[in-house]
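User: Teach me something about this protein's shape.
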Amino acid sequence: MYLALYRKYRPSTFDDVISQEHITTTLKNQIATGQIAHAYLFTGTRGTGKTSCAKIMAKAVNCLSPVNGNPCGECKACRAIAEGTTDIIEIDAASNNGVDSIRQIRDEVIYTPIDCKYKVYIIDEVHMLSDSAFNALLKTLEEPPEHVIFILATTEYYKVPATILSRCQQFLFSKIDPEEAKKRLMEVAQKENITLTENAAALIARLSDGAMRDAWSLLDQCISSDSTVDEEAVRRNSGVADSGYLFAFSEAVIEQKPAKALKLLDDLIGAGKDLCRLVEELTLHYRNLMLTKTVDGSFVKGTDEELRQYTEQCQKLSLDEIMRQVDLVSDSLDNINRMKQTGQGRLLTEQLLIRLCSPKLTSDNKALAARLGALENRLNNFSLENIAVAEPKAVSESVYNDSGNTVDSERRQITADKAEAADDINEKPRPSVQTDKADDSVQTSNPDSKKVQPDFPFDLDDIPLPEPPPFGDSEAFYEIPLPPEGSALEHTASPQDELHQISDKPVIITAQTESAAESKPQKAEGEKQGGDGKDSTYATSKDEEKSGADDKEKRSELPIPESDTGLPSGLQPLAQWNEIISLLPTPSKKLLNNATAYLYGGKIYVDAPTSALSMMKNGKRAAKLRDAVKTVMGGRLDIFTLPEKAQTEEEKEDLVMPFLDRARAMGIEVTVKDK
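Assistant: First, the predicted structure itself:
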């Protein structure tokens, strides 16, 4: 009769047990020193060597000449145990779980062993005993006769009562390491003259999930069907999918193509793949993606090609997306296992794939976080090289639009930094470049040409892109004058975003050091005089359009009003507030750093300290904040400030004391009087 490999190659000494050195070393030391306990509890998953170690332990404690804690296998006691002595009693608690079986053990322990020094009781699956049986075992397990040793084994130690656990030495068996399992399989294959490839052995070890008995059983099955056991033979006998199918599934999920995923599933079912095995493989596949994304594949087992594919796919996925996919696959596994026998397993698997490929079908927090994570991952992978940047003298409408979707965050930060630099030019104003208003052409230094570009003392690329002027009453700003109608620099305005499309010819940039309040009347006067389109620098159109543009500019520079609307409790802060203030110049950014914004009723309410409220009452700074909100939120929103909270007496005192200390340090006597 053929003997199964897991029985034929069951470990006979502690040295033959793999991946359990932390347990076998302790047991060998106890036997070598004679410090043997009266009760042991071996716990761990299936196929990790619990029963094998229990049998080796029973033989070792009775061996007449042990070798470093291992049984010799040649003495009288070892031969008697191998032949089946009555002093070693194995009990299956799954089928003998009643109180009568334990009472029988209690009555027999008083008798001394016949062939050995110790009578050893091995109770397997001890968690299956009934409560009455556990209670009947308590006293005997606590104080057994000196010639009796109990070895209990279970896969579910948490079902064993605490009163039993406290009376035993507990040893937790870990899962078999795949590398050690692969090495053991190759050794046995060589002894049995089996052609086993290394990739096949590695796959068997990985599929066994740390259970060596499952690995032996799968190898036995492969030997029966093929003379040469390779990776394909292992996949065919185990019913698992090729890793190529797994990467194809995840690629379909990345591309959000459910039809492609369903076609792959149909092909696998047609090839005879087991649905439960397939979903288990998907679970392991997404686990590897999660670990590769988190720790760069250090804990992922696979070939070099598989590791490369994991790395490539992780670059296309955010961690939120991977976590959502792991949750969906793991939650569906139990349902698919349960419904497979009823014919509904395929339906549930198809539903799983559709949900994986369609994040919009789920509206819970995890799905929303995954969608936001996917957007963030795409933005992080987006390079400035992919943006079609216009010439330095032209502003492309495709880069700056109302929605702000195509404006790269790095480009916006550069623009904000340049605007901040423009705020400080009061001390070092740039020299202005004059134009001849009587002539449409630009003053040139080339006598052979009517239009020659002047020699600028600075590079045009350093000029910030057109935007509302920086805040401040006496701070300089740059203004691009509109060319006369019909000239070579004719102005074209887009009604959608009101941006200027400047031609590729030289543009005169005038540096003004006047305040915004002083420059407005001059501009209005110039527009009034330039009605004929010849003597004015600014291009004019119909009176209604000019009036509407002026009104819009005035409204954009109004201070931010205070709200008289109370906000409901529990309102969440605006998530995009940090991104909005990051577009502002550094002074405004610092003032609003401690402010909190809320989105309620399609409007933004800002709860800010007193210093920030004073900044928001400045029209120029308010205009910059409105433009930042428009860029980030994709459109203009009304902004209000919340009423300032009344200060408590402690807060007032905190403000007064530093002032008094500073005054006394300067030699100034200050008297504080209460009202």
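Now, about its shape. The radius of gyration is 41 Å. Residues 384-408, 424-461, 469-483, 485-542 have pLDDT under 50 and may be disordered. If you'd like, I can walk through any region in more detail.
User: That's plenty for now, thanks!
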